[in-house]
Amino acid sequence: MTGSKHLLETQAGTRVLLDCGLYQGLPDLEERNWTPPPVDPRHLDAVFLSHAHLDHCGYLPALCAQGFRGPIYCTAATADVAELVLRDAAGLQEDEARRAARHPQRHLHATPLYTDADVDKVVNQFVRIAYGEQRSDVRSCGLCLRDAGHILGSAIMEITCDGRRLVFSGDLGRYGRPLLHDPTPIAHADIVLCESTYGDRLHPPNDPRDDLGNVITMAMARRGVLVIPSFAVGRTQEILYAIAQLQAAAAMGDVPIYVDSPMAIAADRIMERHPEALRFDLRARFGPHDDSIGARHVTNVEDAADSRALNDIAGGAMIIASSGMASGGRILHHLRNRLPRPQDTICFVGFQSPGTLGQQLLDGRKEVRIFGIPVPVRAAIAHVDGFSAHADREELLRWFGGFVDRPRTFIVHADPAAAGALAAAVAARYGLVATPAQPLETAEV
Ligand SMILES: [Zn+2]
Questions:
Q1: pTM higher than 0.85 for the full model?
Q2: 412 alpha carbon to ligand 1 midpoint, in Å?
Q3: End-to-end CA distance of the chain
Q4: For site-directed labelling of 231, which of 86, 280, 329, 386 has its Cα 20 to 30 A away?
């Protein structure tokens, strides 16, 4: 899980890296980012990038810093979103390096894994291609990207080399979601690499919008402030879209909503620039007087002083801020301020990794540490499951139903239990030979 990187080598000796992700999560896993990859980046011909989540693109600046000068193929929307998240990641790493100098006892990295200047190199190496466009500029390796419906710009890769067709799922999205398309079914493949993030789980059957509406009603009844930690890119827009629908159905009152995330505001603008990656054109669907993704009463907070001023709001408002797992960003200031207040509510709208502040709060901890300071937890803690951007087990199996061939299948990008479960399910339902791939395993196909 995380750190997605797959090396494809053709008979002609072309070497293409499929995704170039960062390891994320517990400290031991993140430490792996500091071990150079087993292949010299200078000897890679190209990178094919499925989407702009950091666990798929977050190592690209390090790759360029180590001498990779080749093209990075992705959709235009992925290039725009990746630039946003990579600049943010570089900034966080540069911050850590500065903190390391101030607090030598904390064992932080004194040099950043990469800097904003390395992100400039990545941006210059992006080659933007459209969904459905056939490219053959990499020697002996054709590429076509199809919409994966996971986040804005996400793609499934159809790769042809040595007379064989390889399909890499990237991360697959959901079916029937309001903003993004369904994952594109693929008919032909000899080999499939498929993710299995949710390969052993099912999403709840109820509509997360209704659950969110209930949380908003309860939070406002307490006369407090509702704080939603949310990923800036994708999730925040989905929450705003759900709020727009709740407002249109008069299922919530006129609550002022503050989006306290410069990155989410930038992501909104990227979304508006890429109607090709959405189910509909946001500009056509909503009027010019809607504030954000169709929602009303939304104030975008860019300035740090305006962000601090939100601390003075006593009740009757919502604050959406990142990061989604409360592992950094402006949300930490809001949590430090709101957690001790019994009238306030904190609502998580995504998966919380083990060890994160978000998981500690969902576990019911009565005290947490923020910026090294103990903070009592008196606010109500809520969780709306179901906004996940990942296909669950049944949705992954539904996507496999699109193949008319019987591809040899490798399950990648998953915890061992989830990989094993999906491999067994794919074999049982479709009769495919499916195996969970191991780290550093090589397969000749
Ligand atoms: Zn993803």
A1: yes
A2: 13
A3: 23
A4: 280
